[in-house]
């Protein structure tokens, strides 16, 4: 069985994914909005970067899209509209668990920050890459093995490493395996939550390049989460800046990087390494904060 990419293309005139007024809160404290009225979209074949400091709600937003919020949390309103090639536009928040499971790994895939927590240490990487190919595409036997080999080669790992266990690979190789798993079924949307943070700078650059190439080759839309504006400058088409659960600014990469409007974006940009690669040790200026937030609170958010 082969996958016909043509049948998996979503409607071209609409965004691939559109979040509308998404809010998330703990079930026990419905008024405490961890994600507060977030709306943005991801275009077909383009990358939207969500950037913001630790605790700003980036991962929760991604998990909500995937229908993977933990039991203690709940979606507190909003829609997540996915432009599905076969079924038209569907609101992912209305899908039952079974339908969501079918979408995940097939049309929507996610790469997590730390590959060792997502890979099973007692199964070979080839087996783990093969799982979603069998589940979603029904591949077995020779077809399955050759697809696993071609996926490994696509991400720059020799095919014979299919027999290796995760702890026999380097950190960068494990992240490549995670990428191979995520793209196995040629998803139209790939969500990557800080996939390079645990890697050294050189490997990080290689992985970013690989993701960009695969995105172009497969015409995937990508939601890329990072706290690093250097990464944003490298790969984003559009940028969403989050602070304390809310979007404070969004726009094209050029708009946000070259002409930031919000003081928080300006403050974050001031921390980007300069041309010589030196981190400017300029503390983030929170003096613009007013109302409910104090500068001290914001400082705490930085260190959570
Ligand atoms: N299960 C939970 N129960 C209560 N609060 C939670 C839960 N999960 C996350 N939070 C809180 O929600 C806020 C947003 O968390 P989230 O993981 O989305 O942040 P993030 O922007 O991804 O941060 P980081 O850059 O550190 O990964 C944080 O203040 C976090 O403490
Ligand atoms: Mg996170």
Question: What can you tell me about this protein's structure?
Answer:
The chain is an alpha/beta fold and 304 residues long. It folds into 2 domains: 5-107 and 189-263, P-loop containing nucleotide triphosphate hydrolases (Rossmann fold); 116-184, no CATH class. Helices cover 35% and strands 21% of the residues. A 6-stranded mixed β-sheet has the order 7-8-9-3-10-11, with helices on both faces. Helix 4 (125-137) runs parallel beside helix 6 and helix 6 (171-183) packs parallel to helix 7. The protein is globular. Adenosine-5'-triphosphate binds next to helix 1.
Please mark out the parts with pLDDT under 50 across 5 or more consecutive residues, or reply none.
1-7, 294-304
- Ligand inventory: adenosine-5'-triphosphate, magnesium ion
**Beta fraction:** 15-25%
Structural class: alpha/beta
The total domain count is 2
Q: In angstroms, what separates the terminal alpha carbons?
A: 48 Å
- In CATH terms, what is the fold-level topology of the largest domain? Rossmann fold
The SSE string, one letter per element, is: EEEHEEEHEHHHHEHEHEEHHH
CATH homologous superfamily name of the largest domain?
P-loop containing nucleotide triphosphate hydrolases
Number of helices: 11
CATH class of the largest domain: Alpha Beta
Radius of gyration: 20 Å
Average pLDDT over all residues: 87
Number of strands: 11
Global outline? globular
With strands numbered from the N-terminus, the spatial order across the biggest sheet is 7-8-9-3-10-11
Major beta sheet summary: 6 strands, mixed
- Going by CATH, the architecture of the largest domain would be 3-Layer(aba) Sandwich
**What share of the residues lie within helices?**
25-40%
């Amino acid at each position: 069985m082969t996958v016909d990419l043509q049948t998996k293309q979503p409607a071209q005139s609409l965004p691939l994914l559109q979040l509308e007024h998404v809010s998330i809160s703990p079930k026990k404290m419905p008024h405490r909005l961890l994600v507060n009225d977030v709306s943005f979209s991801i275009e077909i074949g383009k990358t939207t970067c969500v950037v913001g400091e630790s605790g700003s709600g980036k991962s929760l937003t991604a998990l909500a899209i995937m229908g993977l919020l933990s039991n203690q949390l709940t979606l507190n309103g909003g829609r997540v509209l996915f432009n599905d090639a076969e079924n038209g536009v569907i609101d992912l928040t209305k899908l039952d668990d079974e339908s969501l499971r079918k979408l995940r790994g097939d049309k929507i895939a996610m790469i997590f920050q730390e590959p060792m927590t997502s890979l099973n240490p007692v199964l070979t990487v080839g087996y783990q890459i093969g799982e979603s190919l069998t589940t979603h595409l029904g591949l077995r036997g020779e077809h399955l093995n050759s697809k696993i080999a071609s996926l490994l080669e696509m991400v720059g790992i020799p095919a014979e490493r299919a027999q290796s266990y995760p702890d026999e690979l380097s950190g960068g190789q494990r992240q490549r395996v995670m990428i191979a798993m995520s793209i196995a079924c040629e998803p139209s949307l790939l969500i990557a939550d800080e996939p390079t943070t645990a890697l050294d700078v050189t490997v990080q650059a290689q992985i970013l390049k690989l993701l960009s190439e695969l995105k172009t080759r497969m015409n995937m839309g990508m939601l890329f989460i990072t706290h690093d504006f250097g990464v944003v400058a490298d790969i984003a088409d559009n940028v969403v800046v989050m602070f304390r659960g809310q979007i404070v600014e969004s726009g094209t990469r050029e708009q946000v990087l070259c002409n930031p409007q919000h003081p928080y974006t300006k403050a974050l940009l001031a921390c980007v390494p300069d041309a010589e690669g030196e981190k400017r040790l300029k503390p983030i200026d929170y003096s613009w904060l007013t109302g409910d937030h104090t500068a001290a609170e914001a400082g705490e958010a930085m260190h959570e």
